[in-house]
Each structure stands twice: as C-alpha cells, then as structure tokens.
Amino acid sequence: MNLKAQTASENKLLAAVEKLRLGMISGNRADLESITSKDLSYGHSSGKIEDYTAFVETFASGKSDFVTADFNKQTVKIAGKTALVRHQLDAKTNDGGKPGEVHLGILLVWHKEGKDWKLFGRQAYKLP
Q1: Which domain covers residue 91, as residue numbers?
Q2: Does 29 fall in a domain?
Q3: Cα-flanking dihedrals φ and ψ of residue 35, to 5°?
Q4: pLDDT tier for residue 4 given thresholds of 50, 70 and 90
Q5: Using CB atoms within 10 A as the burial measure, which of 22, 33, 49, 117 is most buried?
Q6: d(Cα 31, Cα 34) in Å, to the nearest integer?
C-alpha cells in the first residue's frame, strides 16, 4: 500500500480495493456487486476470462472459496477517472473442499463511475 499522504480519491479507491478483498473472502454478493462495473473483464492466470455476472456468481456461490486473501506489495496510480492497482495476491483457498494456496501478480483497473470507484478490469499472472 502507498504509505505517503493520500488524497481523498486514493482513500476512496483503497476502500473499494479492501471491499473487493473482503468480498472475495466472504462471497457477499451485495458487496461484490457494489464495487464492480457491469462491463467487468476479469482475467485469471490460466487465461480464463469472466464477465461481471460470472465473477460475482463464482464468489457468491462459493465455487471460488478464499479462506484468506492478502494483497501485498500494492501500488496505486490514478489518472483522472482511471486507476491502476497492482499487488501480489497471497491466499489460502478451499475450492470444492480442496485446500490450496495462490501466489499471483494482479493488475486491477478501476474506473470512476459518478463518485464511486468500480472494478473495470482484472488480470492475474504467474509470478516469476
């Protein structure tokens, strides 16, 4: 996370990123829907791409089950109504009752819709 003094826009963006992180763990449909653009493109490190509906349903149904999710080494860049957030996702999962771990690089693209930041794009990639 950026430890420098943060603007109101950065604070609001970081609150949305945190709501995403917590929503991934809880699977709370309303929380996930509230911070996600209807035009979402959600890319997995495997190459699989999900839209808004598939993304929300995957977490809300428990198909993707994050027990923990830490966003480490996070950086933020805001340019007008667009923001890029990069981090390393370190998580414990329990997909289909099978415990696992995830260590991936993530690029989040956020777009300001009205006063709120909405997740517009996400791409995961394997770390070297």
Answers
A1: 8-126
A2: yes
A3: -115, 10
A4: low
A5: 117
A6: 5
